[in-house]
Fold:
Amino acid sequence: MSSKQIEVPRGYNNQQIIFRNTKEKVDAVGFDLGNGSQIELILFEKLDPFPKNREVDNTDIDIFSENIERNGFQSTITVSRRHGVDEEGRSVEGRYYIVSGHRRKEAFGLILERNPTFMKRKMPALVLRDDIPFDQLEELNLLMNYDARAESPKEMRGRVARLLELLKQRGVEKKLIDQIADKLQVSARQIRKYIDINAKLSVGLLEKLDEGYITINEANDYASRSAEAQEYILKFLNEHNNVMTKEEYQEIKKQDDERQASIKASEEKAKEYERKIALQQEEINDLQKKINDKGKAAEESGAWEYSELEETKEKLEKAREKANKYKAIIDNARTAAEKGSGSSIGITAHIMIAEQISRLAAEATKLKSKTTRQSYILEPNDVEKIRTIINDLNEMITIPKKSEKK
Structure:
């Protein structure tokens, strides 16, 4: 359905409000205004924040407020009519939810504190048609209020998770990630990172991400590791001032990959022999049936049936021995899998010391470039002492080559 032409009322100093800016923003998230949406001037006191709207960014809100007071609104806010009663049973008829424009309302409120009659206390608003379901209004709120520059990882994680949920509820199944990426104007790869992080990263590491101690890329790497590896990474970060170098992570990754490969191989071997046991059990059942049938026939027909009966019993015994052998192989495979899952993960001492040496070397370089540091005269000999310590540490961690067998 195409949008009909909407007549825009006049704003501050009878200036025309640029509705095009709002329409472009609505169009950008793939929403059709349809018939019934219109521009109105809404009383400030009738505007309510959208439920669960992100916290308003008040950075430079006073400057923004002064700009509106001088030049008026450059675009409308977007609102939807409320109907019925609120949680306390009070009528909400005549009130509006702000779908997009919470920051502009905050700025307008500051103007009214200085000038209570400014624009007759009314804000220009695009009032959406009444037939839009609430979950679609929430979707619109999530999309129109997205600001990549001000968005924290925690906010972005929540936004992506909720959009995914809302789109699925609407029956949108095809290319979900691409659709969210297109609407938020970010790459599909970035959206996949947030989805994987939400689904796979441990609670402790999620907190590290939300607190800014690890980056999105680091969180995405850690999310690909096993639960045991993530537990070790969290412990390591807590013990090392929230710092893990690339080299240290790569060692954890290598150990975890080897460990998971070993577990997978053991599990696949167990499944293979479970299939063999199932086939062996079928053979055992068939042989048992033959023994029962031949036993009855021997009683009725004569001694020659007994030799065939004994032969069948021998086959049954061999089949059972083979089944037991397969069971032993399965038990060994599962034991190996458990042993692999219980193997420890950790950064070896020489990697940790090597990393410390690298940091010491960098510090020595900085010290050498300065002649004074905290009122202490740094002599050339001091730098040499530092380098001597580094060399000694290097010798301490040198791994000797295994002697060749004669």
The longest strand covers residues 38-43. Confidence is low (pLDDT under 50) at residues 1-11, 402-406. The chain has four domains: 12-132, 153-241, 250-342, 349-397.
